Amino acid sequence: MTTLVIAEHDNVTLKPVTLNAVTAAALLGGDVHVLVAGHEASAVATAAARIAGVDKVLHVDDITLAHSVAENMTEQVLALAAPYSHIVFSATASGKNIAPRVAARLDVGQISDITRVISPNTFERPIYAGNAVATVQSTDATCVMTVRSTCFMAATQTGQALATTENRAPVAVPGHTMYVGQDIVKNNRPDLGAAKVVVSGGRALGSVEHFNALMTPLADKLGAAVGASRAAVDAGYAPNDWQVGQTGKIVAPDLYIAIGISGAIQHLTGMKDSRVIVAINKDPDAPIFKVADYGLVADLFVAVPELMAAFDELKD
Ligand SMILES: Cc1cc2nc3c(=O)[nH]c(=O)nc-3n(C[C@H](O)[C@H](O)[C@H](O)COP(=O)(O)OP(=O)(O)OC[C@H]3O[C@@H](n4cnc5c(N)ncnc54)[C@H](O)[C@@H]3O)c2cc1C
Questions:
Q1: What is the C-alpha separation between 80 and 235, in angstroms, rounded?
Q2: Which domain holds residue 98?
Q3: In the chain, at which end, N or C, are there fewer CB atoms within 10 A of the end residue's CB?
Q4: Number of independent structural domains in the chain
């Protein structure tokens, strides 16, 4: 039994989610190989070979793999898939784009968003927006799965490469899809998915001006990423990629501060695994308080400035 983990990277740096995917792969038992498919990404292959628990790194270098175009990545994964019992992707936008194509072409079912490995073919995954946990068993020859990173510890990286690295030839790609460009929002804050502290604002902020005036300085003081409820995003207070929840990002920081967020199940599913949850809401019956470790029943327009003043006092 051997598992192939598909590494996520930007040709320079290995994304932390790959470390979580390796942990999930190691729980399956058997050998763990990591595919680094990219262009001029040898630094990433070296980093992958330093992940504890990885036995081999497959490195494929080609210009067609420079931007992780799903169609091209699919061909590359399929070309290498034959010996593997499991093919593991992170449940990210990229992983969720490639994994179903690979599963369909292998004529197997995809097992999505696994949160626990029970045995090599039996897994847990959330359903109904996290209201229930399904135990699923695969009877397919190859298990193609996506892994919820927040449910698996990051594998450690060793000082030197323990795994062997093999260079593999790139395959021909369909050519009907090509990379044109990308428009990346520049942000000095930590990445929402990987931040240790997240401050999230909800509909109660009332306007983009209030959202920026309260959430941004609070996040600055805590070195936090900013998140938002869907209501706040839909109302235009925050950009789409800040949304936390079922149809947004799944986060599990050390500290999650929910401000003016009611705690609808679709929001909770994206943050309830956070280590410490703090909620500020003026309604004592708001459902967010059911998952909060610390709850403050207060008007956010009073409480947040007070909180910031208290942080300033602590610093002095
Ligand atoms: C298929 C589907 C997918 C969805 N996906 C997501 C998702 O990914 N993420 C997500 O967040 N939602 C999602 N939703 C929407 C979700 O159901 C809720 O509508 C949304 O989370 C509500 O956002 P909110 O808590 O900001 O707003 P509200 O529910 O309106 O809550 C606002 C809260 O602010 C409090 N409040 C008001 N004024 C103040 C004040 N001055 N001080 C303090 N507190 C105050 C109120 O008491 C209330 O609890 C989804 C819904 C569906 C149907």
A1: 45
A2: 2-168
A3: C
A4: 2
Among 280, 270, 195, residue whose Cα is nearest residue 229? 270
Sequence-separated (6 or more) residues with CB below 8 Å from residue 221 = 308, 311, 312
**CB-defined site of ligand 1, < 6 Å:** 202-204, 229-232, 243-248, 260-262, 264, 266-267, 270, 280-283, 286, 299-301
Q: In terms of Cα–Cα distance, which of 50, 269, 11, 279 is closest to 150?
A: 269
Helix (H, G, I), strand (E, B) or coil at 106: helix
Tokens 């490639």 correspond to: 98
| Residues 203 and 86 placed together within one structural domain of the fold | no
pLDDT at residue 188 in the model: 80
Q: How far is CA 267 from CA 183, 192, 245, 250, 298, in A?
A: 27, 15, 4, 9, 20
Q: CA 148, 45, 72, 25 torsion: positive or negative?
A: negative
Residues of the chain falling short of pLDDT 70: none
- Per-residue pLDDT at 184: 76
- CATH no. for residue 45? 3.40.50.620
Query: Could you tell which of 214, 243, 247, 289 is best to mutate to test the pocket of ligand 1, judged by most ligand atoms within 8 Å of the CB?
Result: 247
177, part of any domain: no
Res 175: pLDDT: 85
pTM value surpassing 0.70:
yes
Domain final residue pick, 151, 168, 185: 168
